[in-house]
């Protein structure tokens, strides 16, 4: 309470201007309050949902670089503008991060005070009964033949049977009782929101310390878990390449099985794996069953064919069994496209390349090769042979799976032959070079992933679900009762009121409770009248 | 491998189910037509053009002043709906038996299962709270439309599952996604009905004479809002579980538990929208109509996620069976 002092009436003191520091504090406090208000959290939730939309409607670099490239060539004017707003990297963009960080802070501001308050409430006694019990959503008055204390004893017993925490007080308006149960509802609420925070932390940790590398491995080949070996990799900011586990994997055999209607039934890879320098173990991995080893996971994410060629040059030198993976252009028939580059041709300054189509089961109609079956029943290739300069040392990165079109456009590469070949067939170029299609190997697209946050995220997700169930399915009930003397001093009037959160149909339960109380009161009154019977 | 005659039976049952639901719609219409004895417009125009304040029917809607003939039609409609649900369950059962797998491996089967869940949820609600029977036509009409759409545009003949779907997680993830979707379907319709009804009640309270007999017979706005909320409360943990199960499956199938694949993104958006709905209902200034709109948006997101993401965008969830 403030004490008022006598002031000279003539000079009312203007309210002094708050010091700048206090003004800043007040402003910050106001911002903090509005940021942590439920309304703000709602708006931020909506913003998050809306912000995620372009990430699904526009191609994303994280999902498919080639689709982004195509979008750029289809919309040369629009794409750079969209790119400036990070619309091809929505989920790693600063504005997406801004929204979820704000939501994160808002969530902390919401849930931490709530958790503290809840912890206090768990240990505190139920609050005193309100003055007007008949204003509570559920209310009933009962006549009792017992005195006030005995009546409340009966109520307390009924409530304790129902596992309420009960407190008796001598209130201002008569002896009263407060009872409470259902703390787990609020506990669920707090757990849910804290687990959301934990999940976000786990996600962030996984992104910072996690990595992912992918590589095409032909049967018989081996790779080790280093960034140098991967065709593609992405790593979090805090990944130390020296700490990566020295896992090495050999692809022994790859099998693709199909149903009668050529639906893919299973893809399995027999692999040998182990840490570099130690013994290798064998296992089979496939779709839905990766290898989990030492915090790393090894997946088969795709497969394809590598046609094998032998090239014999006019001077007698030859390359035997050279191959390159051809990427599936169509998963239904496994019709694949690729290129085999020969930068060092013996006895010549010109470089050589084959580019074309591979069909596991080929069918040539009108000179055009198509594939009719994903299984390698009758492998065929249709290749163009190019001679000239491949541009591999030009300093510009180029696609491994095709030859550089700009070199053809500039006239550096010229087409010197073309052929449709079955296994064992060969074609002879004008200079006498013989190219033989000698066979087919399978390759598997393999991926090694490392995400230290994964289990943390899973635990948080389970906690989210448990908290959610507690929050949504449990009720928090408060029951209050008070006795007053009956009209004219005869008997006792018992008022019972209840307040329930988390349930719509409270009336039947309240009626059941008060019915039981009334019955117990009647019973007790009878035994008091005739204690012998 | 595929039992063709069972597969054909399944297709026939699909048509039968559509027929039964259509008849149920007709019966619900008849119920409305005969239930209009107390049509508000006729009896309440006072002489001199003034209007008489008429108390808004309470939560029970027009159920208590219902003539026997309307009640009979209502029962017929309910029976037809229940029969339709049984036959529709038969569609999925025979498909499953014909293919020897869970019958939710493509969009046709998924959509059929979602609609079945929605019908069952409606039936359960209508049996437990008879006043809710009166939203029947607004549930069954979208159901018939959805079924026709599914049959025409999403149909895929019975076949084996693609390799990626051969996992125990299919039973967990897809089943819960179907349950969640079906429940949200009914919840969304209840919110639409709430929006219509609450406007009607506001007009009545303002002394106007809204002409709509159909809206007059709907349950009260409060009851509709409660139904929408309770179904969403029921559906939200199921949807949450479906998303988590999907993430666990994705971890073993695709090499990461979350990668912002279009389907994942929209599942996330739906989750956020429903979370917003549940929050909005307890936030001052958002109760009532604004929160109901959020629920309607949620249903829109769910439908968009099914149709657009599978048919237009390219992502990893391309199991629709449509080429």
UniProtKB/TrEMBL annotation, chain A:
It is found in: Membrane. InterPro entries: Cyt_c_bgen_Ccs1/CcsB/ResB (IPR023494), ResB-like_domain (IPR007816). It holds the Pfam family ResB. Keywords: Cytochrome c-type biogenesis, Membrane, Transmembrane, Transmembrane helix. It comes from the Bacteria. The chain crosses the membrane at residues 95-116, 190-209, 455-474. GO terms for biological process: cytochrome complex assembly. Residues 1-21 are annotated as: Disordered. Residues 38-504 form the ResB-like domain. It is a multi-pass membrane protein. One of its GO terms (cellular component) is membrane. The keyword Transferase does not apply. This is Cytochrome c biogenesis protein.
Automatic annotation (TrEMBL), chain B:
The lineage of its organism: Bacteria, Bacillati, Actinomycetota, Actinomycetes, Geodermatophilales. This is Cytochrome c-type biogenesis protein CcsB. The keyword RNA-binding does not apply. The keyword Transmembrane applies. The chain crosses the membrane at residues 12-34, 76-98, 110-128, 135-156, 168-196, 232-250, 265-280, 292-311. GO terms for molecular function: heme binding. Residues 104-317 form the Cytochrome c assembly protein domain. InterPro entries: Cyt_c_assembly, Cyt_c_biogenesis_CcsA, Cyt_c_biogenesis_CcsA/CcmC. GO terms for cellular component: plasma membrane. GO terms for biological process: cytochrome complex assembly. It is found in: Membrane. It is a multi-pass membrane protein. Its main location: membrane. Keywords: Cytochrome c-type biogenesis, Membrane, Transmembrane, Transmembrane helix. Pfam families: Cytochrom_C_asm.
């Amino acid at each position: 309470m403030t004490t008022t002092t006598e002031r000279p009436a003539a000079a009312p003191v203007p309210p002094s201007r708050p010091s700048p520091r206090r003004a800043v504090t007040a402003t910050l406090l106001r911002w903090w309050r509005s940021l942590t208000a439920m309304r703000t959290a709602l708006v931020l939730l909506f913003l998050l949902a809306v912000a995620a939309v372009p990430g699904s409607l526009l191609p994303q670099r994280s999902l498919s670089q080639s689709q982004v490239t195509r979008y750029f060539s289809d919309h040369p004017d629009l794409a750079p503008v969209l790119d400036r707003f990070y619309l091809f990297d929505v989920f790693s963009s600063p504005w997406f991060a801004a929204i979820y960080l704000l939501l994160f802070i808002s969530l902390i501001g919401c849930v931490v005070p709530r958790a503290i308050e809840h912890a206090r409430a768990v240990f505190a006694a139920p609050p005193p009964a309100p003055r007007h019990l008949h204003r509570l959503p559920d209310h009933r008055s009962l006549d009792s033949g017992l005195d006030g204390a005995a009546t409340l004893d009966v109520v307390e017993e009924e409530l304790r049977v129902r596992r309420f925490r009960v407190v008796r007080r001598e209130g201002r308006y008569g002896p009263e009782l407060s009872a409470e149960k259902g703390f787990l509802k609020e506990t669920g609420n707090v757990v849910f929101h804290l687990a959301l925070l934990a999940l976000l932390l786990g996600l962030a940790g996984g992104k910072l310390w996690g990595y992912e590398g992918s590589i095409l491995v032909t049967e018989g080949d081996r790779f080790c878990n280093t960034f140098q070996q991967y065709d593609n990799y992405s790593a979090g900011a805090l990944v130390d390449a020296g700490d990566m586990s020295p896992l090495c994997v050999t692809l022994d055999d790859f099998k693709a099985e199909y149903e009668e209607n050529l639906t893919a039934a299973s893809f399995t890879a027999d692999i040998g794996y182990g840490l570099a320098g130690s013994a290798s173990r064998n296992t089979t991995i496939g779709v839905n069953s990766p290898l989990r080893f030492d915090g790393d996971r090894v997946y088969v994410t795709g497969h394809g064919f590598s046609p094998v060629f032998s090239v014999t040059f006019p001077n007698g030198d030859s390359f035997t069994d050279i191959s390159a993976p051809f990427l599936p252009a169509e998963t239904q028939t496994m019709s694949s496209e690729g290129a085999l580059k020969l930068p060092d041709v013996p006895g010549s300054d010109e470089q050589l390349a084959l580019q074309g189509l591979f069909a596991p089961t080929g069918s040539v109609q009108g000179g055009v090769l198509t594939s009719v079956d994903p299984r390698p029943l009758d492998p065929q290739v249709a290749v163009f042979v190019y001679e000239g300069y491949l541009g591999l040392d030009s300093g510009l990165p180029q696609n491994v799976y095709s030859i550089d079109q700009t070199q053809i456009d500039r006239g550096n590469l010229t087409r010197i032959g073309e052929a449709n070949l079955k296994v064992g067939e060969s074609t002879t170029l004008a200079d006498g070079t013989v190219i033989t299609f000698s066979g087919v190997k399978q390759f598997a697209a393999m991926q090694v992933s490392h995400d230290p946050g994964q289990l943390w995220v899973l635990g948080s997700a389970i906690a989210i679900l448990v908290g959610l169930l507690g929050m949504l399915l449990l009720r928090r009930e408060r029951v209050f009762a008070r006795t007053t003397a009956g009209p004219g001093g005869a008997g006792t009037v018992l008022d019972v009121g209840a307040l329930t959160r988390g349930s719509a149909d409270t009336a039947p339960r309240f009626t059941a409770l008060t019915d039981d109380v009334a019955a117990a009161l009647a019973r007790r009154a009878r035994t008091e009248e005739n204690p012998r019977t | 491998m595929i039992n063709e005659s069972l597969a054909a039976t399944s297709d026939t049952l699909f048509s039968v189910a559509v027929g039964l639901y259509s008849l149920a719609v007709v019966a619900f219409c008849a119920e409305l037509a005969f239930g209009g004895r107390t049509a508000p417009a006729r009896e309440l125009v006072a002489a001199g053009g003034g209007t008489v304040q008429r108390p808004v029917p309470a939560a029970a809607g027009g159920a208590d002043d219902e003539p026997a003939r309307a009640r009979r039609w209502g029962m017929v409609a309910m029976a037809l709906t229940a029969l339709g649900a049984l036959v529709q369950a038969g569609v999925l059962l025979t498909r499953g038996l014909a293919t020897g797998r869970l019958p939710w491996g493509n969009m046709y089967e998924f959509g059929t299962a979602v609609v079945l869940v929605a019908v069952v949820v409606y039936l359960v609600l209508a049996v437990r709270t008879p006043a809710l029977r009166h939203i029947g036509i607004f549930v069954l009409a979208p159901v018939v439309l959805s079924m026709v759409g599914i049959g025409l545009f999403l149909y895929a003949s019975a076949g084996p599952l693609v390799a990626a779907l051969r996992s125990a997680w299919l039973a967990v993830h897809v089943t819960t996604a179907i349950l969640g979707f079906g429940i949200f379907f009914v919840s969304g319709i209840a919110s639409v009905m709430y929006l219509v009804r609450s406007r009607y009640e506001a007009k009545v309270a303002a002394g106007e004479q809204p002409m709509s007999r159909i809206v007059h017979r709907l349950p009260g706005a409060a009851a509709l809002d409660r139904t929408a909320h309770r179904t969403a409360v029921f559906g939200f943990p199921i949807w949450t579980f479906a998303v988590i199960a999907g993430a666990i499956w994705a971890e073993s199938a695709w090499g990461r538990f979350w990668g912002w694949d279009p389907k994942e993104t929209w599942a996330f958006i739906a989750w956020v929208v429903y979370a917003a709905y549940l929050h909005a209902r307890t936030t001052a200034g958002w109760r009532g109509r604004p929160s109901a709109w959020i629920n309607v948006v949620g249903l829109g997101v769910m439908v968009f996620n099914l149709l657009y993401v599978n048919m237009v965008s390219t992502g990893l969830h391309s199991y629709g069976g449509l080429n």
